[in-house]
Amino acid sequence: MILYSFIGSEDGKKVKKNLKKIALFSTSQDKKILSISEQCKEILINKGIEVLIDKNLSKLKDDKLSVSSQAKIKNESDLVIAIGGDGTMLSCSRVYGSKSIPVLGINLGNLGFLTDIDPSDLTADLVNILDGNFVEDERFFIEAKLSNSNKTFLALNEVVIHSGAVAKLIEYEMYVNDSFVYRQKSDGLIVSSPTGSTAYSLSAGGPIIHPKVNSFLISPMFPLSLSSSPLMINADQKISISIINSGNNAELSLDSQNIVNLGKTNEVLLYKSKSLLTLMHPITHDFFESCRNKLGWSSAPKSD
């Protein structure tokens, strides 16, 4: 059986999406995740969809289902279902979402801004999505490049440059499209995407940015200045951070998961990646409702 899902495009036309193979992904093998994964597996099989499983879900394998390599999932999946919290979703997004594979999140964490299917609604929501009742949401990655390396690094939420030690300042200069912005000392600097505006950046006093706003948010961490504030710029601009003094201990943190020691690196370049993440949501998904529920905003007005 080949399942076709349909979504509305910007011009109102219908776009056919062929879902023949769906991968299940997680970064953990605890009992709850395995139970939810087993439920997903049964729903997909009943829909006639071939299931691929990540190595962390190896306990799901049976006579007809084996563990798939990352390469196989990247090459063959039409969708990846990430089961866990936002940390799981971030890992899945960098590994698979950056390869143009849509990602659907099942929330087993706390906030879950990216993973928005609740386990209690799993069967109904997943069946509805497989039947074509869903919306797609594109997010961009931040790409980081070091001056002394050809390697590039991806982050979905934020890139953080920090001193590598508690209560120790780092001195740096920042340029936007080669225009000098400032030179300052602080514990570090957070460069966030709109997706990451509800993550580490929010804890640093930054604003919440709607995911559709094409922007970078730059927030100094405990700056040695009384007038330093978060700065929002167009995401099509290039950011350059020249490190003046860090004692060669500065680090680059990507989504608080991947840490790169900068050593003698004296410049970090940040720019909007060409890779885009496609998130798949239930048809009822609403960004502002997520903010109300997850951040404790006031309740929605009652209908008459």
Question: Which SSEs are present, and which pair or pack?
Answer:
Blueprint: E1 3-8, E2 14-19, E3 21-25, H1 31-46, E4 50-53, H2 70-76, E5 79-84, H3 86-95, E6 103-107, H4 122-130, E7 134-146, E8 152-155, E9 158-162, E10 170-176, E11 179-186, E12 188-192, H5 200-203, E13 215-221, E14 231-234, E15 239-245, E16 251-254, E17 258-261, E18 267-282, H6 287-295
Parallel strand pairs: 3-4, 3-5, 5-6, 6-18
Antiparallel strand pairs: 1-2, 7-8, 7-18, 9-12, 9-16, 10-11, 10-15, 12-13, 13-14, 15-18, 16-17
Can I get a quick summary?
This protein is α+β, with helices and mostly antiparallel strands.
Task: Describe this entry's structure for a reader.
It is a single chain. The chain has 304 residues and is α+β, with helices and mostly antiparallel strands. The protein folds into two domains: 144 residues, Probable inorganic polyphosphate/atp-NAD kinase, domain 1 (Rossmann fold); 134 residues, Tumour Suppressor Smad4. Helix content is 18%, strand content 38%. It contains six helices and 18 strands. Strands 3, 4, 5, 6, 7, 8, 10, 11, 15 and 18 form a ten-stranded mixed beta sheet that branches. A six-stranded antiparallel beta sheet has the order 14-13-12-9-16-17, with no helix packed on it. A two-stranded antiparallel sheet has the order 1-2. Helix 1 runs parallel beside helix 4. The longest helix is centred in the first third of the chain and has 16 residues. The radius of gyration is 21 Å and the shape is globular. The N and C termini lie far apart (45 Å). The N terminus is likely disordered.
